[in-house]
Amino acid sequence: xxxxxxxxxxxxxxxxxxxxxxxxxxxxxxxxxxxxxxxxxxxxxxxxxxxxxxxxxxxxxxxxxxxxxxxxxxxxxxxxxxxxxxxxxxxxxxxxxxxxxxxxxxxxxxxxxxxxxxxxxxxxxxxxxxxxxxxxxxxxxxxxxxxxxxxxxxxxxxxxxxxxxxxxxxxxxxxxxxxxxxxxxxxxxxxxxxxxxxxxxxxxxxxxxxxxxxxxxxxxxxxxxxxxxxxxxxxxxxxxxxxxxxxxxxxxxxxxxxxxxxxxxxxxxxxxxxxxxxxxxxxxxxxxxxxxxxxxxx
Length: 298
Known about the structure:
Blueprint (H helix, E strand, L loop, with lengths): L1 H17 L5 H18 L10 E6 L10 E7 L5 E5 L6 E7 L2 E9 L6 E3 L2 H5 L13 E3 L4 E2 L36 E6 L10 E7 L5 E5 L6 E7 L2 E9 L7 E2 L3 H4 L13 E3 L4 E2 L21
Parallel strand pairs: 1-8, 9-16
Antiparallel strand pairs: 1-4, 2-3, 2-5, 5-6, 5-7, 9-12, 10-11, 10-13, 13-14, 13-15
């Protein structure tokens, strides 16, 4: 713009010097014509392609929500877009997404071995009756934030989902943390009533006095206990409205919990480093009183 102004000033001065007694309006007309010509030749800026966003709620089946890497994969191009969250962050939003279809996952940092997916199982309610594990393709449109995309299915085999991107531009990947060398236990919750009360689910180390527990919300149908040292554990769920009637993961559970299932002994659950042992459902609320240990939680 400064260059244009200088050109116009010089042009006006030359015209004024050479024009002698020509009327001033002729000079103004020439200057205006020159300005229009220069403007017409100037390159026009091209606006960048409009993008959209995905947002949602975060969850984790434990006492808190660990730091996560939330990733949206474009199903057509394979390109991925991500955002990192901090400890106990409950929401996320990924911006700058070209319009298209995406699948969304949450990976527990730093190693991404635990994966939460946005799939039909989550939308169904994470119930035992929910058998569809297919991913949901999220439609992203230009200028629009697609909400309520919650990658909350933490209960299925993480090896069936895409691995966490090994991208050097993403910080904190592969850095050791408190979960290094530990495993987890996960399963379904139930209760012989019209609702599932809040529960304290405890994993007892069979070979020591150690234990670890989580507290679930009312009507939570799933749980996961993480950061368990490799070993063998008993799992018992204590209703917080009456912990004197606990439910155990006992031999009666795989038996079907029918009247003919009389063996209520707890089943040892093996935990391996870096793995989550699935399908551990503490649903035997029919054992005689005193069969299971009392709740150690305060």
